[in-house]
Amino acid sequence: MTLRAIVYTDRAQHRADQKPGSIWFTDPGDGAVCGMWFWCPCGCGMQSRVTVGVEHKPNLSGPTWNWNGSTEAPTLKPSLNVVKNHVCPGWHGWLTDGYWSAC
Ligand SMILES: [Zn+2]
Fold this sequence. Notes:
- The protein is mainly beta.
- The chain has one domain.
- The site of zinc ion has 7 residues, from loops.
């Protein structure tokens, strides 16, 4: 199963639409590190945030991901794991070239 990851530029619109797999990036600024907000690709309606670095994996205390810096065809490494909770049955997979694919 693959799902197109639509990247929003408008945070309020991203929040309002709640489209599964859609993404909004915070401004990376000079440090080239930012947050990626996304609605769970599984369609459970949960929103999550991960810390990403532009073309590098930030060396921080928490988990981080390497983002290719593209908003048209974003790729994140390594894979993402949305842990099972009271909202989400759990989702694990990859974001590659603008598409989510479950493992
Ligand atoms: Zn989910």
